[in-house]
Amino acid sequence: MVDISISGVAGRMGKSIVAAVQENKDTHLSGALEAAGHPSIGRDAGIISGVERIGVRVTDSPEHAFKKAQVIIDFSTPEASIRNLEVAAALKKAIVIGTTGFSQHHRDMIKELSEKTKVLIAPNMSVGVNLLFRLVSDASKILGDDYDAEIVEYHHRQKVDAPSGTALKIAEVIANSLNRDIHKVAVYERKGIVGERSTEEIGIQSVRAGDIVGDHIVLFAGNGERIELIHRAHSRATFAKGAVRAAIWLKDKGAGLYDMQDVLGLK
User: pTM score, two decimals?
Assistant: First the structure.
């Protein structure tokens, strides 16, 4: 049995993860964390998540929330995730991070702290999306510079970061497969007279509308044909189950930095 604490427990993903932990016979919820002043503080984590009462109250203290945990699952904000990682490292607790929107400075901190504890970070915990990363890599290598690469991602209107972490990861996979510098070739918006598309461009476009959970379309277009790789998420449950799977996998690993590709054996 793996004892899990959830950070960001009252958010959309947090509630889904509570349900996934309760459904999994190999996991147990041992702690629940939210930001100071959040209305869920003091309430039962199961009740706010729409499952049965489980006897774990939401706290705003990471030290208290993480005390009994073997693995922490964090879906919060970049700043909160870094603070939680610092506490996890001090307590020698493993942590799975699904937060997106990290700056390069944040990423440098994550890498440094992973030398002290087990850290798994992924922009998307879905098994299907992580298979998509592999398929995109293979397709990029095979198609090469003869096909233009474009990414379009769709998410709900409340999502605060754009492009999505998943779209950025897809772009990085394409760039790495083609030996391109993503910082030089990524194009995030086209408007007006922008000129002819260059061969090395990787276009990344974002749509925000309604309650779309998450769609990602990867387009490879050549002369006379095009190939589209599509992943559509119908429910956040797929991300939550992936996060719980990652937590179970991470428990027995050594200190270091991991991702879902490691969990799924796709490297």
Answer: 0.83
26-30, 229-233, 243-247, 263-267: segment of lowest average pLDDT = 263-267
Residue whose tokens read 């119908």: 234
Domain 2-121+236-264 sits in which CATH superfamily? Answer: NAD(P)-binding Rossmann-like Domain (3.40.50.720)
- Token couple for 148: 């233009």
Write down the domain spans for the chain.
2-121+236-264, 127-233
Catalytic (active site) residue 231: no
123 has a pLDDT exceeding 90: no
Can you tell me the distance from the alpha carbon of 62 to that of 34, in angstroms, rounded to the nearest whole number? 9
**CA 237 – CA 74 distance, rounded (Å):** 15
The percentage of residues in the chain with a pLDDT greater than 70, rounded to a whole number, is 100
Q: Which of 106, 159, 251, 253 is catalytic?
A: 159
Is residue 267 flagged as an active site residue? no
Q: What is the mean pLDDT of the chain?
A: 95
| From 15, 155, 231, 241, the catalytic residue | 155
Domain 127-233 in CATH 2.70.70.10 = no
Of residues 166, 66, 179, 188, the one with CA closest to residue 121: 166
Compute the half-sphere exposure of residue 208: CA atoms within 13 Å on the CB side of its CA.
8
